[in-house]
Amino acid sequence: AGGTRPKVPVIVTMATENRINFWRRKAKLPGRSIWFLIYLNLCRSSLSLCRYHKDTKTKLNNLKTKKASSFHEFAHSTSDAWDIGEEEDEESLRTEASSFHCTKQKQSALPVRPLIPLVARISDQNASGALPMTVREKSRLDKFKLLLASPSTDLEELRKHSWSGIPREVRPTTWRLLSGYLPANRGRRELVLQRKRDEYFAFIEQYYQSRTEEHHRDTYRQIHIDIPRTNPLIPLFQQPTVQEVFERILFIWAIRHPASGYVQGINDLVTPFFVVFLSEFVMEDVENFEMSALPLQTQRNIEADSFWCMSKLLDGIQDNYTFAQPGIQNKVKALEELVSRMDEDVHAHLVRCEVEYLQFAFRWMNNLLMRELPLRCTIRLWDTYQAEAEGFSHFHLFVCAAFLLEWRKQILSMSDFQGLLMLLQNLPTIHWGNEEVGLLLAEAYRLKYMFADAPSHYKR
């Protein structure tokens, strides 16, 4: 008592030190303040775990005891919980609903933030609980409007502003431009839109009736089965009108791309475009909106725009869906190599527990993390993917690496195969919003900057 207080040593991990030093050295990041990012990276913290599916245990035991003899068997054995037989649909969806609505215990050290239901506020730019419109956000929105209103939009400038998120009001037009669907020349946009929309419905008239023919029957049947499993907890996607739209989009894409055809997972890739283009005409919550209330021409425009933008996306990652899915195999292998160089402890722990990267990362690559994140987070993620060069292919790899290491503490705390795989296949992101996605993207950018152009770091 009365003496001087002993000094407490401050312990900084190598990973944290590397992150801090990176942001000190790196003066520029698309759309972000460097000091803000230093603060965010110092404040990173993992979310605690929610309860897992009890009925997953049998599936996990089977995975460990039976090695797949081929990539197709392996992919089938590690298919996610929505890839189920028709007779199991109702019961499985009830299980999904029960599991998705489980609550997460917040770490006591974290500030209290409002809980966000899984299906609420899909299109809300401020889904993390921020104020509806700050002065900074108003300024950003004005910059977007100015860019979009110019006679010829500067796409590089648009990408730079879009990297850190696109305001809801201008997202539909911005996505069309960044997808390469709309021309930069403002005077030509309406003509191009009309021509492409007419072209899509010409495909419908020419090909859609062939869905019942023998050589297309299996494709259509698989699409028809998968559509109800697309975001099954969101009422919008259970409407017959919406499901018919998705069936037409997927069938036309499949028969126009015979090298791959329809593959499970492609159905997910329609939803962000559909929601964004629908939000252009709907001010209230999109997830409960009745699609048939819109004028027929508006419905047709949303459908055609969703088809073309999804097609543009798939043009860059089509090898993910061709025979044997070589794109996914290569990306999963690249992820394993990358993690082994970035964090030897996590990689060695996965190997020691006999967890193979394909068992969890196959779905991350096949569905672009859409099954791991709420839809509102996917939309925010895709803002950056469309702004980043090769965002859906190359940059996605670094996002997956950052996503895996986000759960480092939980991964290293589990020493059994079953518990570890249950964690990796059911990561607790139910309450994620813009803040978490922003942190994930900042870390992915750091990893890309450090590893993408450093082969000695990237490969063993």
From TrEMBL:
<comment type="function">
    <text>May act as a GTPase-activating protein for Rab family protein(s).</text>
</comment>
<feature type="domain" description="Rab-GAP TBC">
    <location>
        <begin position="165"/>
        <end position="389"/>
    </location>
</feature>
<dbReference type="GO" id="GO:0071889">
    <property type="term" value="F:14-3-3 protein binding"/>
</dbReference>
<dbReference type="Pfam" id="PF00566">
    <property type="entry name" value="RabGAP-TBC"/>
</dbReference>
<keyword id="KW-0343">GTPase activation</keyword>
<dbReference type="InterPro" id="IPR000195">
    <property type="entry name" value="Rab-GAP-TBC_dom"/>
</dbReference>
<protein>
    <submittedName>
        <fullName>TBC1 domain family member 22B</fullName>
    </submittedName>
</protein>
<keyword id="KW-0597">Phosphoprotein</keyword>
<dbReference type="GO" id="GO:0005096">
    <property type="term" value="F:GTPase activator activity"/>
</dbReference>
<dbReference type="InterPro" id="IPR035969">
    <property type="entry name" value="Rab-GAP_TBC_sf"/>
</dbReference>
